[in-house]
Design brief:
about 375 residues; mainly beta; Pectate Lyase C-like; 14-stranded parallel β-sheet; 13-stranded parallel β-sheet; 2 helices; about 50% strand
Length: about 375
Amino acid sequence: MRHTLVVVVAMLLAIPASATTQRTFVSHSGLDTNPCTVDSPCRSFAAAIVQTNVNGEVVAIDSSGYGPVTITNGVTIVAPLGVHAGVSVFSGDGVTVNAGAAGVVILRNLYINSQGGQNGIVLTSVGALHVEHCVVSGFNGDGIHLHPATAAQTFISETTVRGSTEGIYADAAATLFVSIVRCLLQNNSDGVAVDRATVAVRDSNAEGNAQNGFFARGSGGTAYMTIEASDASNNSGSGIEVDNGDVAVLGSTASANYDGFASLPPPGQFATLTLQGCVGEENAEGVAVGGSSRVSLTDSTLSDNSDRGLFLISGTATLVRNTITRNMIGISKASGTLVRTSSDNIVDGNMTDVSGPGLVMAASKF
């Protein structure tokens, strides 16, 4: 009898004081003192995540605001379609991801809204972060701030980020890869700003931003970006700009910006910009090249720009099979090197087709 009692006591002591489960639930009618089951849901994401297994799920049952949360393990936080799962942020950050170098975190169908908060989503450590079909709006800092201490991957899809300083900001001393697919970056300072990171953008729009749509700044290191089948329009600075790094743009459009595409590294920095199958239209300048730049423009169109189709301030610009038409000046060269293959660029229909030292053209082929 005494032996049996000892065994039972030992078993009871071995049970965790707070057991967790694979799937927890939150509801507008829930209580954070509940066990977070579907029948007795919690009220907040922060309470539910404490009771969720590593790599488990937190599910919003109905529409409500569920509060900021810090994530320290792999987990999925999800709201089904038709449920408005809000995170209102009155101070600090909305969702902080600190899940460790191996953690996988998924945020799906959340509405993260600043009411005076600093950042919407902040990444400090993760193996992979997935942000799917979310809205991040109105932050004093960044909508999505990616600055992990260890190597990380981030996949952002079908997400709107608007009204923040940087819509999406990426920088890390460790390896950081960011994928941005079918996203809208609207009315931020910069839509996407990249310092030390590799970023791939596809089928996305950056519009109405106070500075640049897509910006490879490269502060403190080299920024790498590929941008495919995307649009940058109505930005007050450049649609797409590289200051320090390597940017390749495929099948994309930059319209109604100051510069459509720009490579403008400051002294001591170097930039490469490759444009293929792109359109720069209705900007002040279609393409601006300055500083220590190497720009390649192939199979692209620069049209209806109010100042210049191509403005070569310095650096090197290589032209292959392009059409430059209906600009104030088709090609304007201050200095630098202009390289073109023989007679395969069409430069005509501009108020002035070419202007600058060494530019002489007798026909529409250049």
